[in-house]
Amino acid sequence: MGTGYPHSRxxxxxxxxxxxxxxxxxxxxxxxxxxxxxxxxxxxxxxxxENWNTLQGQYECFFFVADWHALSSNxxxxxxxxxxxxxxxxxxxxAGIDPTRATVFVQSQVPDHAILHLLFSMIIPVSWLERNxxxxxxxxxxx
Length: 143
Description:
The chain is α/β, with parallel strands linked by helices.
């Protein structure tokens, strides 16, 4: 990180889902996001989008534009974040991300993200946060 380019985080998990009045084991899910912190480049294709194209055919995928996360690296000038969000979504579509095969959303449009942040920030000790490589990197960028 720290390059000013969009960044990606992914996780794959098996979840139980409710079907009517019973719980069944559902398809594995993938959640991955990318910050709209600059224009896309070849590294985004090789590092994330190529993989996302494959994953959307194998898993229940949720791909999101992490616009609130972008505020942590673009806090000095946030004027282009809205533009980068739009460009990022256009590039994803052009790269083969298919909204009929994956859920695509913008983080700031889902209020539950802010609620979860509030709840997690109240229960996660700072010492745990300080062990997180992403957090450490962000702290170095701010210095």
